[in-house]
Fold:
Amino acid sequence: MDTTLEARVDAYVDEVWEDVVSDIAQLVGKASVADAAAGTEGAPFGPGVRAALDCALEIAQRLGYETSEDAGYVGIADIPGESERQVATIAHVDVVPAGPGWNTDPFTLERREGWLLGRGVIDDKGPAVLSLYAGAFLKHAGITPRYTFRALLGCDEEVGMTDVHHYLDGHDDPAFLFTPDAEFPVGNAEKGCFGATFVSAPIAGGRILQWSGAEATNAIPSESVCELAIDASELPASVRHADRLEITAVEPGRARIMAHGIGGHASLPEGTINAIGLVVDYLLDADVLEGEERRFVDLLAVILADAYGEAMGIATSNEAFGPLTVNGGTIEVADGTLRQTIDVRFPDSTTADDLASACTALAERFGATCELDRAKPPFSCSADHPAVRALLDVYSEVTGREAKPFSMGGGTYARNFARAVSFGPEDNALELPAWGGQMHGPNECANEAQLKQALKIYILAILRLMELDL
Structure:
């Protein structure tokens, strides 16, 4: 690595770091949960996301970018190069709902003991700001890049990625793109995504009045609340999971079960505990349900028995992509039925059609139905692509660690582009503080030193990509 260039990058990172944190704080302050039902012209995902997009574009303008947008679907920030072909990044300014369990205001950044705390600090508002400051190094250093550098700012990544589909309908693919919305070193393959909803048969005179889980299907619920038409005195004390369950009286003849799990992202189940599953175990142990209500909870016991589809009969794995994962995220009582969603991330050793058939057959065993919600095939970019090799080399040079590409269960924007990968800055091996949490869960946090190193990596990676014949 050019030591003079590295020293210039280090000096720049130190110089701008307090501004970086301040801008992350501004962006975290926008409660930008995408809501297409509240969309208007120019703000298709609602006012909260529009406010976050405006904030991000204002940051880009201050850093010297030429900014534009795709009708509120995607923000565009350019540093023109010698060629109109683009080296690009894409991050997103929308976030999953805050959800329960926070110890601070999720939309107010807190800086504590070398960590940043707030919804979006790691997924993906912090990385969005890093991408803007990384490209801005070109302006700061007086460099006219070989290719135009384009920083894209998405608005609907957490819900459906309709933003990037809209963008690509009217814009060419970049020569190469990376998204700072995963972990280092390079994610060059992504599992397929499959979503479905299990629906019970109509329930007449059931005891389950309300039931809640996560606020998004791709979040592992950290809390689940189930209210029953039964007096609390008739409910036995918990046998399993006693330290994670609270049984209380709401009023005479109505009781509440509250379960405390360990939340996280649907694609990363290790170390999590699904709170809906805790309630299911209690209901079966207590034996207080009958008829179709009991049959559906028996079905839930199968769905939530493990995070890898073993009990459901859909487990599969291969070397390239790793194991299938399954998450039961949201649950509700609606129109006289119970509805449970699943979020499946699958390797290319199975197909969405196979999963649909298996889930439909499983539902029928319990007198339920299965509504298919979405399906996306697995995606990969060759590990031998020169741009992929360049990113791996930069990561290894900066960190001193061996760098090999990997597959992931999370679905990022990369799968929508012709030549794209995910490129940090998350680190799933990093030990979180006792008061901190993972992305998509309560108390989402990010390590400042980790983010600062990621900014350096991004700058050097952009410079290296500009040297390639793309």
